[in-house]
Structures are given as structure tokens and as C-alpha cells.
Amino acid sequence: MRKSFSQLAWLIGAVGVVLGLVNMLTPSASVGNTFYFIAATQLAICVVIGFFAHRPDPRTWMVILGVALFTVAGQTLADTSLPDETLRIVSESFFLVVQILLASALLLVTLRRNGTAILNSLGDALVVALGAWLLIWIGLLQPSLNIAGEPAVISALRGITLATSTIVLFLLVSLLFSEANRTPSIWLLFGAISLSLLGDFLFALDKSGHASVSDRFLNAPYVISLFLASATFLHPSVRSLTHRSTTRQRQPLLGRLVLTTTALVVPLITIALFDPRNQVDRVIRAISLFVLAASVTARVIQAVRTNARTQAVLVKTAQTDALTLLPNRSLMLKHIEEAVDNAWRTGRVPAVHFIDVDRFKNINDSLGHSAGDDVLVAVAQRLTNAVPLSAIVGRISGDEFVVLEPDSVSDIEAMKTAERILECFREPLALRQGDVFVSASIGVACSPATDSPSPEELLRHADAAMYRAKDAGRNCIALFDASMLERATQRLTLETALYRALERQELTLVYQPIIDLQLGDVLGFEALMRWEREDGSTSSPAQFIPIAEETGIIVPIGAWALIEALTHLRNWIDAGICPETASMSVNVSPRQLHDPQFVSVVSEALSRTRVQPQQLWLEMTESIMITEPEQALAALRRLNTLGVRIAIDDFGTGYSSLSLLQSFPIQRLKIDRSFISGIADDVSARSLVKTILAMSDALGLDTVAEGVETARQLEALIDLHCAKAQGYLISHPVAPEQMRNTVISLEKFSQWPKYSD
User: Fold this and answer.
1) Spatial separation of the C-alpha atoms in residues 250 and 252, rounded to whole Å
2) Which of 252, 319, 410, 567 is 20 to 30 A away from residue 166, measured at CA?
3) CB atoms near residue 127 (< 10 Å)
4) How many CA atoms lie within 13 A of 159 on its CB side?
């Protein structure tokens, strides 16, 4: 229904434009009168339909009243040869009342739609209205005062009416330039009133004697105006005509500039071209020019002040965190720079505290981002209350805060402040979702006056110290020293090189055999990764694997390792180096299990290498079962469906429980080397291994002992009936091309202890 009314409104507006053009092209007065009668009639009909269909705000009917009266006035003015002077006075008076009501209605609409925001457009509107007034006075009003035989009352009424028309123009331009969104009914109303003012201008031009305007040109603007007024009341948006509107995203700045400049320049040119006719004309021109100049000056002052306020708001917004209203990174760097610059004069040691909320991601994931925002706001308040009054608290990103202590005198005082900051997190944060406990890792860096680092360097030092605090177990404080920066630099260098290691073929795999302890046969192999860089240096897996997991590059590296290991296994089987049933163990990280493509990668690797799924063991640590177990469980079950088997690596060093072991699709436990190292001499270690073997047997799991390095350890494992083992005693990890010799040497090894009865 709304769409139908909208289409009908625009159709009526289009019909009005067509009839107006036809009216201008047709010299017959009867045609113009007919069109005018049609326009007035359908206006009345549309007003009634619009009222019952859209139920607009009652205040809107002030607009309707003004336009309706304007219609009657236009019909009266259509007869330009009224003989009776009284009727002409009544006609002019009536038209003046119409203009007053129309101005009142526009004022109501403008104020209701914009509120106090309309003040921003009043200056431009006043300039336009005053410019129009000067043109009306010079071109229309002043000449009409000298028309012979024209009664003074009629001339005065016409002058007041034209002056009121400038007020209507002023309000109309204010509505057009306002910040409120312009609905279709606003545009239609603007067109209707603009055309009516054009008709008034042509009528006044004809009466002043400056030009003779034909009735068809006088009538056409009124006809189109009435049709547009009808469309205004018929369009569904008339319901919100006097409602407060939303602000436009893009303001008509260019249109304002063009219109106000024209309204200022044209009257000045007109005044320069036409001399004053008498003293009254000269006085009115002077007063009008003074008011116009004052308006322009006031508008310029308003624009400058508004621009200054806007610039201040923009600067503050650019340097302030929107959530906590604390200084952001750029502003904190300025504060740090100022503190460092003043340090040499004051003898102070400015201190920067870099604070990271521990495990903030868990709060967002469990309670939602709204609760996370509440936590950040509460943390900001806690920090502000905990630090000295001279300190500055800022939020530089996410859950990272910075406290600048410009008046610190030593490292000791800075550490005391850090302890107070840490202490403020002991009490829970009261949120809408309930009480939440949070902790923080704090890095402290000081700027001695003798060797002042740049603000960026000082902040980076505090950041490096914060990471040291995290590595130390979180919820603690670390003071920066040079070794931290060196470590951070090395880590960055290692991270950058790791991104290119795969494409440069710097990564290789070595393999350690897994032996059946009863028979001495090679049952399988574990693939271990090595990294030898172009410069000849090597990095241990303990160095680069955690970085690969953190950056996500472990996903492509893991995919490469998987297909590389299975390819070598297939080559060994085809070459007769190992039995057809030999298996390959490949380590996987939590990041790989969370990759939605990982199962497909495993399936493709098995297919390309023609290795049976049951020959592949994927080894993971116990931590996978603790952190996000549901995601890991889903991936492991899909892998089990393929036939791939799962092993828990380094078993006994994590926090896994029997319930998790039962729920996860696990087929093997690999006993960590820390238990095997003491099994020969330490009764406790031997008891633990025995317990693990018994538990594994009860759960129906395969068992492999890692890190076997001595014959006594091997004998102890055989005594405990451990089935499989690997370690340096059996074989060091070897390159693929050395595997034939390694397997042959193991087959010739005749000193395997046998199971005792």
C-alpha cells in the first residue's frame, strides 16, 4: 500500500509539471483557469485521502492550512482586473495572511525536524533571505511605490507581503540546508513552495511595471505548485513531516557555498548598477547592507568557531580510545616523548608500565564481547585509581594498557608502582554477568637521563618485559634489561626466516626407528623435523616449532612434513628396507587440528603415497585434550574414520585424566623420556612407568617408551613388559638415505634382552 501511494504521489507531481508546461505553451486563458481548477480540486481530494490514509501528526495540518489558503489566494490573484479598491485591499491582505501562515508552518516543520541543530543552517539562510530582500526592494517593491494611482495601502500591503515572502524563503532555505535527512515529502513541499514564490515574484514583477508577464506564465507556477502540494500530502512520508529526523551523512556544503555566494554577490552588483531613487531608498539600502554585512560576519565567525570545535573533536577522537576514553597509542607516545625530553632537566627516571590482561580471549569467548568491553572499562578504572596522580593511563590496543610514570626517580619506585598495579587485580571485577577475576602481566621499562631512548623504543622495551612476565607464568612483573630486547630481536629474525624456510627447502626430516622389544624388529619410524638455514646455522625444533604454531605457518609446514614422511615410508617399503606393515609417526599441533582442511590434507597425503591409513600414527600432546577438547575431538574422530591412528606423545607430563583418555579416540601412549631416564635406579620412576603400562593395558592401548639411552633402561622396560621403544640406544634420528644401513645394523644387533618369565 505504501509503495502504491508513493508511486501515485510521484505520478501526480509529474502530471503537474506537464500541465504547467502545457499552460505556458497555450495562450488561451480558459485553459489556464481549467488547469488551475483541476489542481485546486485534486489538492483538496489528496489532502483528505492523505489524512485518513497516513494519519500524520496534527501539527502537519498547519502546513495544509497554509497551502490551502495559498490556493484560494492564488485563485483570487488570477483575476488581475478587480475594479473595486476594497476588494483589492482584501485580496492583498488575504495573501499576506497566507504568507504569514505559510511561514509559521515552515517554522514548525523546521524546528520539529531539526531541533536546536537548525542553528547551524540559520546563518546561510539569513544571508540568502537578505540578498533576496535587497533584490525585491530594488527591483519590485521600491518601483511599485511610485506607481501612479496606486493606493498607498495596497502598496504597503504588497511590500509587507513581499517582505514576508523573504521570511518564507529564509525558512525554506533553512530546511533545505539543515542536517536532517530529506524525505520525499520534504522535497515535494520544497518544490511546491519554491514554485509558489516564483509565481509571487512574477506577479510582483508584472505589477511593478518592470515587465509585462502573460497570464499563462503567471498561472503555470501555481498549477505545478498545487500538484506538488497534492503529492506532498499523498506520499506516505508525510507521516513523518514534523518528526525529528536522523542526521545526513553527507552535508550539502557545495550547494550552500554556491547559493550563499550568489545571494551575496548579486545584490551587491545590483546596488552598484542602480542608483538610489530617493532618500528613503538610500536609507533602506544602507540598513539592508549593514544587516547583510553583519549576517555574513556572524556567519563567518560561526563557521570558524564550528570548524575549530570540529577540529578539536577530531583531534580528541583520533587520540582517545573510544571505549575507555583513555589516551590511545599515538597520544601516549607524545606523553612519553615529553617525559623523556624533560628527564634530563628534572633528574627524573620516567617509567613505562606495559600491562596485558591475562587470558582476556577466554572472557570474550565465554561471556561475549559485551562482557569483554565491560572488563576493559573496569580495568581502566582500576588502573586509574591505583597509580599516582601524576601518572597517565592509556589503552593502546585490545587488552593492552600503558601507564606512564613521568616523576619516577628510580627503578625501585617504578617496581613499587607496578606492584600496586598488580595488587589492584586481586579483587574481582563486578560485571553485569557476575564477578570476574582477572590477572595481568606487567613489563616495566625506565628511561635514564644519561641514555634516553626514543618513545617508541621505551614502549618496545616495556613490551618485551611484559612478554618475559608472560613466559614466567603470567600474573607477575618483569623489569626490562638488554637481554630481553636481544631475545625479542632474535625471535623476530627467526620468525621472518621461518616464513621462507619452506620455499627455500631449508626444512628436512630425520627418522628414528621404533623397535619391538621382544623380537628386535623395526616396526615403524617417527619423523622429526630439522631446520638448517642458508647461512649454515641450525635451529632446534624447541625454538622454531612454538613460533610456527603461534604464527600459523605450522599448517603448511605440517602438510609438507606429512606427505614427505609418507613418501619416504613408501620408498622404504618398495625398496625392501622395512616390512610392508611398517608405520610412520608424525607430530601434529593443535593449530593443525583446528584447520578445517586438515582431514582432507591427511586423506590426500595417504592417497598420493599409497600408504594405508592404519600405517599412519598422528602424535599429539596431552594439552590438546585440555584446551578446546570439543574441536580436537571432532577432528580426531574424523581421522579415525579414515583409519588413521592417534597417539599421545610425552604422556605423563600434562594434565590428562582417565575420563579424557576414554572419550578421545586414542590407540597409543608414548611414555615421556623424563620417566624412562630414572627407571633403572629410581624406584618411584619405575613404579610410575609400571602404573602407566598397567593403565594402558587395561584401556587396550599400545605403549611406546621414548628416550631409551642405556642398556639398563632397556632391561628395566623389558622386565616391565613394555612392548615398544625408541631412543639413542637403539638409533639416533637419521636422514632418509641412511635408513637402509640403520635397519640392517638393527637386524644384526644380537644383544636384545628377552622377556623374563
Assistant:
1) 7
2) 252
3) 25
4) 17
How much is the pLDDT for 444?
94
In contact, 342 and 430? CB cutoff 8 Å = no
- Show Cβ contacts of residue 740 under 8 Å, excluding neighbours closer than 6 positions: 572, 575, 577
| Locus of grid cell 547583510 | 292
Residue 309's CB: how many other CB atoms inside 10 A?
10
Residue 450 pLDDT more than 50? Answer: yes
- The per-residue pLDDT for 654 is 57
Please give the DSSP secondary-structure letter assigned to residue 247. B
For residue 430, what are the contacts with CB-CB under 8 A and spacing of at least 6?
378
Whose CA is closest to 8, among 233, 186, 192, 194?
A: 233
**Bridge partner list, 583:** 524
Cβ proximity of 620 and 646 under 8 Å: yes
Q: Contact 458/352 with Cβ under 8 angstroms?
A: yes
Q: What is the pLDDT of the chain when averaged over all its residues?
A: 81
Q: Which residues pair with 402 in a beta bridge?
A: 354, 394
Cell 633402561 maps to which residue? 713
In the sheet where 392-397 sits, what is the strand order?
Answer: 392-397, 400-405, 351-357, 440-446, 477-479
Q: Distance (Å, rounded) from C-alpha 200 to C-alpha 212?
A: 14
Strand pairing class (583-587; 522-532) = parallel
- Over residues 584-633, the pLDDT tens digits come to 999 998 888 888 899 999 999 999 999 999 999 999 887 776 665 677 78
| Alpha-carbon span 28 to 605, nearest angstrom | 91
Cell of 668: 597409543
Using DSSP's 3-state secondary structure scheme, residue 523 falls into strand
Q: What is the DSSP letter of 85?
A: H
Q: Which of 412, 410, 411, 392 is closest to 402 using CA atoms?
A: 392
- Calculate mean pLDDT across residues 80-86: 54
What the block records as the C-alpha cell of 227 is 500538484
Q: Whole-angstrom Cα distance, residue 641 to residue 575?
A: 30
Measured between alpha carbons, how far apart are the two ends of the chain, in Å?
94
Asked if residue 556 lies in contact with residue 550, where contact means CB atoms within 8 angstroms, the answer is no
Residue 199 · residue 9 · CB < 8 Å: no
Q: Which residues contact 708 (CB under 8 A, 6 or more apart)?
A: 676, 714, 717, 725, 726, 727, 728, 729, 730
Task: Label the pairing between strands 392-397 and 400-405.
Answer: antiparallel
* Ordered DSSP codes for 665-718: ---EEEE-HHHHTTTTT-HHHHHHHHHHHHHHHHHT-EEEE----SHHHHHHHH
Average pLDDT over residues 629-644: 85
Q: 430, exposed or middle or buried, with CB in 10 Å at 0-12, 13-18, 19+?
A: exposed
How far apart are alpha carbons 471 and 491 in whole angstroms? 14
User: Would you state the pLDDT for residue 192?
Assistant: 82
C-alpha cell at 638: 574424523
Could you tell me the pLDDT band of residue 395, with boundaries at 50, 70 and 90? very high
Give yes or no for residue 755 having a pLDDT over 90.
no
Q: The C-alpha cell of 641 is what? A: 574414520
727: its cell numbers: 631412543
Q: Which residue is associated with the grid cell 480540486?
A: 41
Q: Positive or negative CA dihedral for 426, 427, 430, 434?
A: positive
- Shortest CA distance to 436 belongs to which of 366, 386, 381? 366
Q: What's the rounded Cα separation, in Å, for the pair 702 and 617?
A: 12
Residues in CB range of 213: below 8 A, 6 or more apart:
202, 203, 205, 206
Nearest to 585 by CA among 644, 526, 539: 526
Cβ atoms of 128 and 173 within 8 Å: the answer is yes
CB 243 within 8 A of CB 180: no
